[in-house]
Each structure stands twice: as C-alpha cells, then as structure tokens.
Amino acid sequence: MEQGGIYVKKLLSVLFISLLVFSLAACGGTNQETAGEAETSSKYPEKPITIVAPSGAGGGWDLTARAIAKVVGETKLVDQNITVENKPGGGGAVFLAEYATQDTKNPYKLFVSSPPILINHSKKEGNSPFGYQDTTPLAQLTKDYGAIVVNADSPFTDLNSLLEAIKNDPTKITAAGGSSPGSMDHLVAILPSFKFGVDPKQVKYVSYDGGGEAIAALLGGNADFIATDASAVGEYVKAGKVRVLAVSSTERLSGDLADVPTFKEAGVDADFTIWRGLFGPKEMSEAELAFWQGKLDELSTNETWLQELQANGWESEYKNAADFKVFLEKQDEVITELLTALDMQK
C-alpha cells in the first residue's frame, strides 16, 4: 500500500512538471508570436505609398499632396516611392465614403484634407455620414486663406462694389468654387455677403471639382467671381488674368497678394482660415502611426519643406497627431456654429 502511494506521488509529480513545461513553452510561443508581429509592423512601409487628393488638379489639396510627395522623395525621408492620385467628387465626400469603408486597414493610402472633412459631415444638404472620426488624423501641416477673385476685366474693382451688386439683385451674380454647395469654397464665397446683410441662400453658387476648374470657369466667363485658396491664384495674378478683391486672413499676406486687403479692411467683419493636414486609415497600428509621427515631425522643420511652403504661398502650421485631433474637435464646433448661422446645419 505504501509503495502504491509512492508510485501515485511520483506520477503526480511527473504530471505537474509536464504541465509546467507545457505552460512555459506556450508562454514562450506567445511571446515569440508577439515579437514576430512587432517585427512585421516595424518593417512598415514595405511598398509604395499613395497620397490621395480628393479633388481635381490645381486646387489646394492637389498642390499640398504633391508638395508632400515631392519633398519626402527629394529628402529621402521615406524609402518607398510616394505617388499622388486625384479622386474628385462631392468636395471630398465621395472619396471619404470609399476610404472609410474599404481602406480602414490600408496604411499605404493616405489623404490630404482641410475644413470640408468637417463641413461635409455637419451640413444639412449633401451630408456625408463620414467624418474625421472615421480616419486617423496624422498631422496638420499648413494654413491658407480664402480669396474672392474676379476676372481681370471685371467691372468689380473692390469687394464692396461686388457685394452691392449681389445685394441689389443676387440672381444676376454667379459665384463659383472648387467644392460642392455647403462646403468650404461655398462658405468663403457667401460669408462676405452674409456679413453684408444678404440672405446667403439667395447667392447663386456653382460648384466645380477643384480650384483649377473653378478658375477656368472664371476665365471662361462662366462666373462673376470665385472663392478659392489664396495660395492658388498667385500665378494668375502675375499673369494679369485675375484680380483678387479680398482675402480671409486676419492680416495682409505677403508675396503676390501683398496689396490685397483682408475682409475686415474691405469692411466685412469676418475671417476664415483654411488648414490642411494629412490623414490615414482609422485602424492604423501603433507602429504605423508612430512611423508617420516621426517622419512628419522631421518634415515640419525640414528646410526643403519650408522652401516649398514659401514657393506656394503657404504658412507653416504644424500640429502632431494628438494636438491635431484636439484641434479638429474644436474646429468641428466652430464649423457647426457657422453652418447654424447660415441655416445650413444638419
């Protein structure tokens, strides 16, 4: 009986040791798998990257996306090739609907955006069910301003004369912009009229896919004035093709638009800042987010990038991923208040 008891104790000991060894092996395997996953994530990026401009060529998104790709390529900040793809439609809403449903885990497709990502989600007409919450904000990179632009031979020589004409008969004046009704260009176009005492809903607005098409419409006589990015009109000003009546900045700009008054100088108590930033898919891994955080931090102070900003007439305004997200939350409130004032909120 005693020998049987000893045998049972030995058997239990063997079983215990076997279980212990198995458990340790399993833990080791888990650690190895985790290490393997981390190693895989750390290899990002392993193939070319696309930056999407959700508009046609020539507008602020397109120029910003191409500037990022150009500088990152020239400075070898990222080893992989970066290409730019234009996907116009709905002031960015068409692309975002596709991106937020089909590319949620694709870290090889990033995109540039600005206030329309907030406006499209908050406006009443043509509302987008998707917003910045369906992405991973990576960084704010620049800020720009809106501009009210007329053809060089336009009878309107200043903002006040244009606003008086709109007030006298809104049906005779056509505004245009490179984004859909209720979006950024539209808000910039009607903001002076609204502050001038005109019902913004009476102002005729025609939308085009991108600032380049809007400028073409102006030059072709299909619009009396356009609202577009201040940085996008410099070359047309130098060529003598257009006249900028006012810009939405709080202070006068430099360069080609140095002589252009601000809205406030022109008698309109308003201003509007057009920030631009880079976004990634909603389900980016921590390693992928950390990669871009580091690279964009470097880009923001890179001399080649700062020269590119100056060449395009942009101002540097850098916010990292965390600060950018907080900023977007506050901007969302501001946009909603503006749309509410215009009776255009959802």
Automatic annotation (TrEMBL):
Entry-linked Gene3D superfamilies: Bordetella uptake gene, domain 1, Periplasmic binding protein-like II
Any coiled-coil regions, as ranges: none
Superkingdom classification of source: Bacteria
InterPro entries, A to Z: BUG, Bug_dom1
Protein family per UniProt: Belongs to the UPF0065 (bug) family.
Protein name according to UniProt: Tripartite tricarboxylate transporter substrate binding protein
Organism the protein comes from: Bacillus mesophilus
